[in-house]
Design brief:
With about 150 residues, this protein is an alpha+beta fold. Helices cover about 15% and strands about 25% of the residues. The strands form two sheets. Strands 1, 2, 3, 4 and 5 form a five-stranded antiparallel beta sheet that branches. A hairpin with a 2-residue loop joins β2 (about 10) and β3. It is elongated. Mean pLDDT is about 80; it is low at about 1-15.
């Protein structure tokens, strides 16, 4: 199991935003396990499903992305969906997972970044991943010069 950034890390003076794609384990679920996962997804039991999330577990154990935060996930897993179909129709070859994420952090404790929305685009159907996006409020940092 590995986690890697799928793009670059952008730094805005004191803010970092890290779009990433987590690599999930490649074992195939049984048909029963897949049906159970999908039932929980369609019942919106995200908090239960996220208890098994690799990224959150690795962060809590201090192994990856120290100090980074993420908006609240309140959307369906973004992988492995059927390419060419809008909505969330999952391939039975892999377990559905939140592989596409946006993490953020501020280098200044008194200038925290806030997340006002975190969402996916279910109508996008060009990949077996659904894109995710976030809206962040990043406080401005100004330099005040005083003459003495």
């Amino acid at each position: 199991d590995t986690i890697r950034t799928s793009q670059r890390i952008d730094e805005l003076t004191h803010a970092s935003c890290c779009p990433l794609q987590a690599i999930t384990h490649s074992d195939s679920p049984t048909p029963e396990d897949h049906a159970s996962l999908c039932a929980d997804i369609f019942s919106r039991k995200y908090s239960e499903l996220l208890k098994m999330d690799q990224l959150q577990r690795e962060q809590m154990e201090g192994h990856v992305f120290a100090g980074f935060r993420e908006g609240q996930i309140d959307f369906e897993p973004t992988f492995k969906v059927l390419k060419g179909r809008s909505g969330f129709h999952y391939s039975t070859k892999r377990s559905p997972a939140w592989c596409d994420r946006v993490l953020f952090k501020s280098a200044l404790p008194h200038k925290q970044i806030s997340c006002s929305s975190y969402y996916t685009a279910p109508e996008t159907s060009t990949s077996d991943h659904k894109p995710v996006a976030t809206q962040l409020s990043v406080p401005l940092v100004t330099n005040t010069v005083t003459s003495g």
